[in-house]
């Protein structure tokens, strides 16, 4: 009942100034971002793979190890920080993740060899894995249910982050006259974004839903009061009888040991419908993640024998096409398509784009195909990021999202190596593209068993759920 109360209070307060702050704090890399950071680093990996391969004369498999180290960190980070977020609070975990990413990205900037870079990327992935699962949870628990489509819109920062990174890389490639390789400069600039994120995130409050779930009624009231004052200019107070009821129901939680709490969370996650959710989401994220990560990491290679600056220019166009995909997805998730059929449509069309990518005979067709593909993939991911936290109950919401995102990275550990090996073969390109098409199609089909989470319109003051 605690989540229901928190949702009702947020709905009563409505959307306003504080809500916009949370939106940008969870969304925008320059002003404090979580998801954009993740896509920012995904694109940085592409430049690191290309640049380090030249600097250290790495083979395709060795450069793939760098991408796999990052993916391994993402796997562990989602699960570790998912548990921390459910046990010790969303904000405690949310502030720690960006600090881990900041320190490790500084290390990567000055790395001396493959091993040092792999270790730094592992730690960056650890922080980014936590970022990715926490951003949706934090925003979801600050957002009025009727405005939850903004969670889908937040995926626009995937496009913003990746496009901005591509522009920076393009400029550095053209203007760099120093002795430092371009990828080191790109990573160094990323450290500045991480620092800005960390500073702004220090001022974020704990979510009211988490406070209520832990029996911290006074804290929840204070947070809701802060939200109400900034959104409406009016103070907010919980009903005294409700406060006593919630406080009494949680008075015995102080005796729970942290270790026991962890096992309780894990047991709840792998029982009943929660287990079914984990399996479905893992299939979806894995089948979408393998081709998307491979295409992202190896796009300069897939584009063929063109200059590095030209490749970066093309990547800017491709990533920019993800921005309209987010707006289309944000509109579709609140129509009759809902969350799950938006996912199905998006990845089915992405799979179709792979066919045209396969038969592409010239660079123009390849550019158009991959740009449209990126639009559909981002459209699908934006809907996936919305339905994932909405589907899990609050007591396991963060660990559930973390586990799903973590497991989705398992295949990303091997996909750079597999894709790198395939592209080194004579007929590896067509085989890789066929695999991408099949996996995108599998993601589209896997969404069918999910329950639709799209809220229905308000009726007589109550928010109905589909």
**Fold-level CATH name:** Growth Hormone, Chain: A
Task: Give the helix proportion (percent range).
Answer: over 70%
Residue runs with pLDDT of under 50 for 5 or more positions: 29-39, 249-260, 458-466
Order of helices and strands: HHHHHHHHHHHHHHHHHHHHHHHEE
| Oligomeric organization of the protein chains | single chain
Total count of strands = 2
Q: Which sequence of strands runs across the widest sheet?
A: 1-2
End-to-end CA span: 18 Å
Overall outline? globular
What's the alpha carbon Rg, rounded to whole Å?
Answer: 22 Å
User: Major β-sheet, in short?
Assistant: 2 strands, antiparallel
The DSSP helix count reads: 23
What keywords describe this structure?
466 residues, 2% strand, transmembrane transporter activity, Growth Hormone, Chain: A, two-stranded antiparallel sheet, MFS_dom, mainly alpha
Description:
The protein has one domain: Growth Hormone, Chain: A. The chain has 23 helices and 2 strands. The protein has helices at residues 2-13, 17-27, 29-32, 35-55, 60-88, 90-109, 114-140, 149-153, 156-175, 182-201, 208-213, 217-231, 240-249, 258-269, 272-297, 299-302, 308-320, 322-332, 338-359, 363-391, 397-408, 410-424, 428-446; strands spanning 455-459, 462-465. A two-stranded antiparallel sheet has the order 1-2. It starts with a helix and ends with a strand. Mean pLDDT is 78; it is low at 29-39, 249-260 and 458-466. It is a multi-pass membrane protein. It comes from Stentor coeruleus. InterPro entries: MFS_dom (IPR020846), MFS_sugar_transport-like (IPR005828), MFS_trans_sf (IPR036259).
